[in-house]
């Protein structure tokens, strides 16, 4: 596979997912970038904005294992990771693997589970490995978490700690579709069976494990010029000195942004990154990695607004 073939594959995958998830082309693109970059995605939006449908559609386009966890207040870490159970017939402990042992994991409404259960994913997301009773179990290089959360209803929810937020490559904000898209969605569903599984039926599984590995091999060869790396570092360091930001982005954030830039370049059929790649990915890569100052919050500013101001202030390489 060369870069031209890879670009065509990604365009086809976008089209397949776009048949079901309409009006969210930029979100679909960022989810695919995260998968190929080896990152994870946090999707935030009000109920009924196709967050779960997005995850199911992405998994349908990938010939990979997919499992879903509905996070609830009574969910325990063992329900996510699995447990060692004693078998009285063999007098040995036997591992019962939890749903985390998969390729694509949908962590639905992750902020409804208490911190001890949320933290069960920390090692899995960072190391793609789970340690149970002193034994390490690999989750494989394709392990990808797509977590959703609802920003409106806060009763019975537990905000994700900064350490876990930093494990997500992107935080994607899903909003309601525009009028034309909403009409198109209703028109499409009006011609389908009422079964919920019909809505992502017909998506072809285009990205096999081999195609994913081949795509990542191409991405590994993408070159980032010193000017692009300097630009990324200047942007990230600007978050640490901005008066509107109490805590800025980490070095891990800069490294994650650089990885995402390489993937976006490959998606566009280029073997080099551009300042445009950095600018497109800056806000989704950093919006969850900064903490606004109290004065900025009182003034009603948002992380997106503050990051856009930094982007406009820091000179891009020519």
UniProtKB/TrEMBL annotation:
Instruction: Write down the top EC class of this protein.
Output: hydrolase
Which superkingdom, per the lineage?
Bacteria
Identify the Pfam families for this entry: AAA_3, AAA_lid_2
Q: Which GO terms describe its molecular function?
A: ATP binding; ATP hydrolysis activity
Q: Which keywords does UniProt give here?
A: Hydrolase
Q: Which CDD domains match?
A: AAA (cd00009)
The UniProt entry, under InterPro entries, shows: AAA+_ATPase, ATPase_AAA-3, CbbQ/NirQ/NorQ/GpvN, ChlI/MoxR_AAA_lid, P-loop_NTPase
Quote the EC number. Answer: 3.6.3.-
Question: Which residue ranges run through the membrane?
Answer: none
Per UniProt, residues of the AAA+ ATPase domain are 37-178
Gene3D superfamilies assigned? Magnesium chelatase subunit I, C-Terminal domain, P-loop containing nucleotide triphosphate hydrolases
Q: What is this protein called?
A: MoxR family ATPase
Source organism (scientific name): Rhizobium fabae
